[in-house]
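Students often ask why inverse folding is considered easier than folding. One informal answer: many sequences map to the same fold, so there is more than one right answer. In these notes we will look at a single instance of the problem. The structure comes first.
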């Protein structure tokens, strides 16, 4: 006769609620992190050392620059430039946000909205105060030409969002479904996935929506560098963090990444923390690099932005190496009791 099986006892209500509460920790931490990051980065944009210039060598131009600096304080950094050509060059080098050409009847402000539309708006506000007191309108000239599908210059930021989500979401799948694969295979899959993500990004941003209307290959290459860095870092971290990997990647590549990228506000309109992150965070590397390619003829610090992306890719490689060593030690530790038992059996047989 077969022995009847005793059904497993149903979990108590308290145990079920405790189990549910533990699993709710992750989404609640995501909520808290997003609230702190986004509101901390964007809740009160105001100028901090906004770099502007007054064009002219006359005592009146010098006096105007000094008066604006005295009134605005740390909100702006005002310099004087000798002529329009010097002002245009500094705007194209992204060393300036706006350059004011005084004139009694038709004052003009030069800006480069491809650098940042919101920063250009802030510079316009500074010099509109001057022309309003004169009782004349301010003429604003943009030295950059926006893409057909991106008149505000915000489209590149949304391309960054798409690349980021496609990249870090793929890590969860590779970590779960590919757990049985070697680290080398998972890394190769990650590189291939990042290639697909970057192609999807450039096709939608280019031919579909015309956010990128020239130099598609260069922007795609930046996108692949960026995506590969995110994916490889994620695969490496998964070996250590397991179920917490998604939260960690959201912190790294959403909460701190989007907020410091310069896509909404550049550092001159943010607090010091997010402004500092902008100098070396990977999202800023991609976004500012793409801006340099599309609006500034591949100049304006493009090399530095590429270096940023390469450094993050190397961090991904280091994370993979560390993960491979960690998993190797785990496998050896798991197999050592079995190996010891096999040795004991062999010795017994020999005797």
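Output (designed amino acids):
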């Amino acid at each position: 006769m077969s022995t009847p099986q005793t059904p497993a006892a149903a979990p108590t209500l308290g145990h079920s609620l405790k189990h549910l509460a533990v699993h709710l920790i992750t989404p609640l931490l995501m909520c808290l992190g997003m609230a702190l990051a986004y509101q901390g980065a964007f809740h009160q944009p105001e100028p901090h050392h906004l770099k502007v210039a007054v064009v002219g060598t006359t005592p009146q131009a010098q006096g105007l620059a000094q008066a604006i600096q005295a009134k605005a304080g740390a909100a702006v950094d005002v310099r004087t430039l000798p002529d329009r050509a010097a002002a245009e060059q500094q705007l194209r080098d992204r060393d300036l946000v706006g350059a004011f050409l005084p004139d009694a009847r038709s004052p003009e402000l030069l800006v480069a909205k491809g650098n940042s539309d919101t920063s250009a708006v802030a510079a316009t506000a500074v010099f509109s105060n001057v022309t309003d007191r004169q009782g004349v309108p301010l003429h604003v000239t943009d030295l950059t030409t926006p893409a057909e599908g991106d008149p505000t210059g915000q489209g590149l930021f949304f391309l960054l969002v798409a690349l980021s989500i496609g990249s870090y979401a793929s890590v969860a799948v590779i970590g779960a479904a590919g757990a049985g694969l070697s680290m080398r295979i998972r890394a190769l899959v990650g590189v291939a996935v990042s290639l697909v993500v970057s192609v999807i990004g450039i096709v939608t941003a280019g031919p579909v929506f015309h956010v990128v209307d020239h130099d598609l290959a260069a922007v795609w290459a930046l996108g692949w560098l960026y995506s590969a860095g995110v994916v490889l870092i994620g695969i490496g971290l998964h070996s250590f963090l397991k179920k917490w990997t998604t939260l960690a990647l959201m912190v790294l590549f959403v909460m701190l990444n989007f907020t410091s990228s310069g896509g909404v506000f550049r550092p001159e309109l943010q607090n010091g923390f997010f402004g500092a992150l902008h100098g070396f965070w990977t999202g800023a590397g991609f976004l500012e690099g793409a801006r340099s390619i599309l609006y500034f003829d591949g100049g304006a610090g493009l090399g530095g932005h590429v270096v940023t992306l390469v450094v993050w890719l190397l961090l991904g490689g280091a994370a993979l190496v560390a993960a491979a060593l960690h998993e190797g030690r785990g496998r050896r530790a798991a197999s050592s009791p079995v190996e010891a038992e096999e040795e004991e059996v062999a010795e017994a047989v020999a005797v």
